[in-house]
Specification:
Helix content: 25-40%
Number of strands: 4
Strand order of the largest sheet: 3-2-1-4
CATH topology: Nucleotidyltransferase, domain 5
Shape: globular
Order of helices and strands: EEEHEH
Oligomer: single chain
Number of domains: 1
Number of helices: 2
Distance between the termini: 16 Å
Strand content: 15-25%
């Protein structure tokens, strides 16, 4: 998958990592190899209640807010080999709600 998807400074690559406990996402500029913005389930408030899909949607919204503060409004989605279903789809929908375009 990563061979086909490439991010740049104008349109960074949105990388998704999913584990049994939570989900993480970051925006990567592949030209320089730098992470421009990131969000994780660990950054959610301790009072957050919900299932893993709700957690993924909240991480997507947090990533969109971090991207907005970094001046990024569009990206390329890299699902990282995971199926576009469940938590990965919820993260993508949350990022779109937050204002990221992909």
């Amino acid at each position: 998958m990563r061979a086909k998807v490439r991010g740049s400074a104008e349109r960074p690559r949105l990388v998704v990592f999913r584990s049994n406990r939570g989900i993480e996402a970051q925006l990567v500029d592949d030209d320089t190899g730098r992470t421009l913005a990131s969000a994780s389930h660990l950054g959610l408030p301790k009072s957050f209640k919900g299932e893993k899909t709700a957690q993924a949607e909240a991480v997507g919204k947090a990533l969109a807010a971090a991207a907005k503060s970094a001046g990024i409004d569009s990206c390329v989605f890299d699902r990282g080999g995971y199926l576009y279903h469940g938590r990965v789809k919820a993260l993508a929908d949350g990022a779109r709600e937050g204002g990221l375009a992909f």
